[in-house]
Amino acid sequence: QVQLVESGGGLVQAGGSRRLSCAASGFRFSDYTMNWYRQAPGKERKLVATIGDYGNTNYDDSVKGRFTISRDNAKNTAYLQMNDLRPDDTAIYFCNAERLPVGFYWGQGTQVTVSS
């Protein structure tokens, strides 16, 4: 059974940091691209960071230089380190595992709220 379990969300003040984790099971983690999406209230879900199976990364312009995505294949876990958080980073953050057409999986999401 495939599972993606996010953790690390919560309330943080503007300028603060937070690290999200995504623990994966039920599939060959190292073969998958791992993504972090976020969805703010009233907005569409948006891709913010990607790390390929070779460790190559890509970021949305809105988080570039502040967020860092990483993965530990030995622990089947992906991370999103978020620094210099802003109120407009407030959203539900979702972990996603992608290896089309084989698999495309979602976690349940974790809320991050940044207070000004």
- Quickly give the structural class: mainly beta
Share of helix among residues?
under 10%
Question: Cα-atom Rg, whole angstroms?
Answer: 13 Å
Largest sheet: 7 strands, mixed
Spatial shape: globular
How many β-strand runs? 11
Discrete helix count = 0
Order of helices and strands: EEEEEEEEEEE
Uncertain spans: none
Spatial separation of the terminal alpha carbons: 40 Å
What is the beta-strand fraction? over 45%
Mean pLDDT equals 97
Keywords:
116 residues, mainly beta, 7-stranded mixed β-sheet, 4-stranded antiparallel β-sheet, 55% strand
Topology:
Blueprint: E1 3-7, E2 10-13, E3 18-25, E4 33-39, E5 46-51, E6 57-59, E7 67-72, E8 77-82, E9 91-99, E10 103-106, E11 110-115
Parallel strand pairs: 2-11
Antiparallel strand pairs: 1-3, 3-8, 4-5, 4-9, 5-6, 7-8, 9-10, 9-11
Textual characterization of the structure:
- A hairpin with a 4-residue loop joins strand 7 and strand 8.
- The protein has strands spanning about 5, 10-15, 20-25, 35-40, 45-50, 55-60, 65-70, 75-80, 90-100, 105, 110-115.
- By secondary structure, the chain is mostly beta strands.
- The radius of gyration is 13 Å and the shape is globular.
- The strands form 2 sheets. Strands 2, 4, 5, 6, 9, 10 and 11 form a 7-stranded mixed beta sheet that branches.
- The chain has no helices and 11 strands.
